[in-house]
Amino acid sequence: MAHTQTLLEKRERLLGPGNPLFYEKPVHLVRGEGVWLFDADGQRYLDCYNNVPCVGHCHPRVVDRLCQQAKLLNTHTRYLHENILDYAEKLLSKFDASLDRVMLACTGSEANELALRVARFNTGGEGVICTNATYHGNTRAVAQLNSIFEPFEGYGDDIRMVPWPDAYRAPDGLQGEALADAYAGKVREAIESFDQAGIRFAGMIVCPIFANEGLPAIPPGYMQKAIGYVRDAGGLYIADEVQAGFGRTGNWWGHQVTGVVPDILTLGKPMGAGHPISGVVARGELIDHYRKHEMYFNTFGGNPVSCAVAEAVLDVIEDERLVENAASVGRYVFDGFRGLQEKHDIIGDVRGNGLFFGIYLVTDRRRKTPAPAETKRIVNRLREKHILMSNIGEHDNVLKLRPPLCFSTDNADQLIGTLDDVLSSLQEQV
Predict the structure, then answer these.
(1) What is the pLDDT of residue 1?
(2) 213 burial via Cβ count (<10 Å: 0-12, 13-18, 19+)
(3) What is the pTM of this model?
(4) Least CB-packed of 55, 82, 183, 393 within 10 Å?
(5) What DSSP character marks residue 173?
C-alpha cells in the first residue's frame, strides 16, 4: 500500500492532477498473459474489460512479429514497403466489396477526425449528427461529438445530438416498428434543423452497437430508417468501429449486427492488440476524391512495425477462430447473466453481442430506476475479488464487460459465479 501511495503521488507530481484511474484502490499491473493480468505482488486478475489486447495479452505471435520487424526496419510511410500493402489487402478482404480503400493512422481519435474530414469534403457540408450520450475521441474536432464529456468551449452550431435508441427504456411505451420510427424521426428532425439553420448536412457518426450509450437493445429497423434519412439528405454514414470491430460482437464488424453497410468506418483499439494503429475504411470514390484535393500524411500511421503487428492480429483471429469463439462463448456468458437476472432484482436488463456485454442495474425494476452508486460498489468489489470490469452508460449504471476474444467457458464460470456472490452480498447488506 505504501508503494501504491508513492506511485500515486509521483503520478500527480509528474503528470498533473486529473489523470483518471480505475477503482477506488488502483491496480498496479506489471504483466499480462492471455485473459490474465498480474499486479506487482503477483496477484492474478481475470481481465473482463480490456478490448485493446483482443487476442489476449502479449500473444506470442503478435509479439514475435513486432520484434522481427523492429529488428529490420521502422520508418515513416513515404517509402515503399510490402507490409502496409499486405495488411491493407488482408484487412479490406474482411469488408463488403464497396469498402475498398483504407487510410492508416495511430489512434481512434485520429481516425474519427479523418473520417469527418473525408465526409465533409465529399458532401460539401459541415453538419454532423451524433447521439446524446457518446464519445468519439479527444481531438478538438471529435470532442464536439462527445456528449458525455462536454468540451470547455461548448458545442458548435454544426453538431446535432439525437436520443440513442433503446428498446428497454422506450418512450411512451412504444414497441417494435413504432419505436424504431420514433427514434429515427429524431434523426430526420436533426437533419431538418440543419436545413432551417442554413447549414449543409454532412452525415451521421455512431458506434453501430452504441457501446458508450450502454449497449442498448436497438429497435429492429432503426438503423435502416435512420441511415435512410441520412442518405436521402445527401449525408454519409460513419460507423465508429473502434470498440465494435475485429470480432468483438461475434461478427467481424459491429455494423453487421444491424445489417447496414456504412459509407465510412473507423478502426482503432484492438486493431494492433496493444500497439497503436488505427484506420479509416471507406468507399473508394470517397477517399480518392479526398486525396486528389487534400494532402493526408501521417508519420507513424502505417509504418512497417505497426502493419506487421496488425497483420499478425488478423492472422491470430482467423487461425484461432476467435470470431467464432466470441459468438459461442458470448452466448454462454449471456445465458449465465440471464440466469443471474432471474435471481437478482438489481439486474434490470442484460445486453450484448458476442463478447461485449452491458448489465443494466436498477434500484426498482418496475420503474427501471438507474442504480449508479450500487454499480460503482459492485465494480470495486469485483476488483477486490480479482475480476476487472468497468461501468458505462448515460447514468453510469451499466456494467461493461469486453474480455479478450480467447475468453473460455471456464473463465465465464469464474466471472458469473463471482458476480453472483457479489450481488448476493450486496443484497444481504440492504
Answers:
(1) 59
(2) buried
(3) 0.96
(4) 82
(5) G
Fold of 2-55+321-429: Aspartate Aminotransferase, domain 1 (3.90.1150)
- Dihedral sign for Cα 251, 55, 205, 395, please: positive
Based on the number of CB atoms within 10 Å of its own CB, is 198 exposed (0-12), middle (13-18) or buried (19 or more)?
exposed
For residue 372, with 0-12 CB atoms within 10 Å meaning exposed, 13-18 middle and 19 or more buried, which class applies?
middle
pLDDT of residue 343: 97
Where in the chain are all domains bearing CATH 3.90.1150.10?
A: 2-55+321-429
Structure-model confidence comparison of residues 95 and 135, the more confident one: 95
Phi and psi at 285, nearest 5°, equal -65, -25
Of 118, 85, 101, the closest CA to residue 310 belongs to 85
Beta bridge partners of 204: 129, 237
Report the candidate in 137, 78, 114, 77 with the shortest Cα–Cα distance to residue 281.
Answer: 114
Amino acid occupying residue 157: D
Q: How far apart are CA 79 and CA 384, in angstroms?
A: 50
Reduced to 3 states (helix: H, G, I; strand: E, B; else coil), residue 366 is coil
> What is the average pLDDT value for the chain, to the nearest integer?
95
Positive or negative: CA dihedral 281, 283, 288, 290: negative
Q: What residues form DSSP beta bridges with 353? A: 356
According to CATH, where is 3.40.640.10 located in the chain?
60-319
CATH of domain 60-319: 3.40.640.10
CA angle 415, 424, 347 (to 5 degrees): 75
